[in-house]
């Protein structure tokens, strides 16, 4: 491996309709959460579903596509990169967040 790359691909369902933010600069941002499921069987034979929630953000043309075609419950594949950042709340507390910055979205045949 000559280069290492920050690359993420997730397939899951939207937890809510995307939140659209139109910035003063004219740029568009969409944010949504994506649920992915993992299935396994415990030693006693009980089948378990484990759900993880991922924060997804998209900009520009990708944001336009998501705003127009993607809604709550829709199954999608998102491709992008992991991004971690921090911010300060109004109370002065520092918070950390990890998001997937989506640069490609594929809508599957399933609509949720």
From TrEMBL:
Ranges annotated as spanning the membrane: none
Organism domain of life: Bacteria
InterPro entries in the record: NA-bd_OB-fold, Primosome_PriB/ssb, ssDNA-bd
Gene3D superfamilies registered for this protein in UniProt: Nucleic acid-binding proteins
The UniProt record lists the keyword Hydrolase: no
Keywords: DNA-binding
GO cellular component, one term: nucleoid
Residues spanning the signal sequence: none
UniProt KW DNA-binding keyword: yes
A GO molecular-function annotation: single-stranded DNA binding
GO biological process: DNA replication
Assembly and interaction partners: Homotetramer.
Record's protein name: Single-stranded DNA-binding protein
């Amino acid at each position: 491996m000559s280069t290492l790359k920050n690359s993420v691909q997730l397939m899951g369902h939207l937890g809510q309709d995307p939140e659209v933010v139109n910035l003063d600069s004219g740029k568009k941002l969409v944010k949504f959460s994506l649920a992915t499921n993992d299935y396994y069987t415990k030693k006693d034979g009980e089948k378990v579903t484990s759900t993880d929630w991922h924060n997804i953000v998209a900009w520009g043309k990708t944001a336009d596509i998501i705003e127009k075609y993607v809604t709550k419950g829709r199954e999608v594949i998102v491709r992008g990169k992991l991004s971690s950042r921090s911010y300060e709340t109004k109370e002065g507390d520092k918070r950390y967040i990890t998001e997937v910055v989506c640069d490609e979205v594929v809508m599957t045949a399933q609509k949720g």
